[in-house]
Amino acid sequence: MTRRRKPRRLRRWLWLVFGLWLASLAPVLLLRFVDPPTSAFMLARHWEARGDADFRLHWRWVDWEQVSPQLPIALVAAEDQKFPQHRGFDLDAISSALGEGGADGPSRGASTISQQVAKNLFLWQGRSWLRKAIEAYYTLAIELIWPKQRILEVYLNIAEFGDGIYGAEAAAQRYFGIPASRLDAGQAALLAAVLPNPKRYRVEAPSSYVLQRRVWIQRQVRQLGGPAWLEACCGEPGATR
């Protein structure tokens, strides 16, 4: 009798693990085709501001075809120049960051755009090794299931460009009074320049650092080859393929 129970228990545990694995992949599969209605970071910011009657969260999804070609290349130039080639992780940057880490995890970020999508969509803020492990799992899932264009499309729609300002459309309307489809190279580079810390660096009142970073991003865009450089892996924004 005891020998019979052990295989049954093992099977139940295996089915449980399999079920949990499928449940964890379900949102990644769904969001490959369905636009996310919000993100974990947006929900967290809503919760933080629950007592602030003046706070408003600005966000509106915009499809890939409705984005200026200048914005995706500016984001890649600023945040992750190996985006078209890597499979979710910049190993050189991770190795460098780990060398500076402490007991609570890496002391600075080495995140690719794919990692930032995983983190912003599904996870809480923090730097613990547990969160990094879960982030790595979702990054792998996103890279396996989504094409590069989808990863970049979601990223530019959920990135925070200021306190309570999420996504390209809200940022373009808020700071420049235009839709995301009309952003020029300078405006796109300025939005990308604040991404390291959008609560500290401001688009509407850029510091000298932000202005210098905008110039650097525009130079990097030119060196990479401009918007055409992304077309091979991501398609061309602003036009239906």
Tell me what the structure shows.
By secondary structure, this protein is mainly alpha-helical. It has a single domain (25-233), classed as Penicillin binding protein transpeptidase fold, CATH 1.10.3810. Helices cover 57% and strands 3% of the residues. It has eleven helices and three strands; from the N terminus they run ααβαααααββαααα. It has a three-stranded mixed β-sheet with strand order 1-3-2, covered by helices on one side. Helix 5 packs across helix 7 (148-158). It is globular.
Q: Can you lay out the helices and strands and say which pair or pack?
A:
Elements (H helix, E strand, L loop, with lengths): L1 H30 L8 H9 L9 E2 L10 H10 L11 H8 L14 H10 L6 H17 L2 H11 L1 E3 L2 E2 L1 H9 L8 H9 L14 H17 L3 H7 L7
Parallel strand pairs: 1-3
Antiparallel strand pairs: 2-3
Which terms would index this structure?
single chain; 241 residues; mainly alpha; Penicillin binding protein transpeptidase fold; three-stranded mixed sheet
* Helical coverage, percent range: 55-70%
CATH H-level homologous superfamily name: Biosynthetic peptidoglycan transglycosylase-like
The strands making up the biggest β-sheet line up spatially as 1-3-2
Residue-averaged pLDDT: 87
Rounded to an integer in angstroms, the radius of gyration calculated over CA atoms is 20 Å
* Low-pLDDT segments, ≥5 res: 101-108
Name of the level-1 CATH class: Mainly Alpha
Shape, principal axes of CA atoms: globular
Q: What string, H for helix and E for strand, traces the elements in order? A: HHEHHHHHEEHHHH
Major pleated sheet: 3 strands, mixed
Contiguous helical run count: 11
The number of E-state strands comes to 3
Strand content: under 5%
Level-2 CATH architecture: Orthogonal Bundle
Span from first to last CA?
A: 63 Å
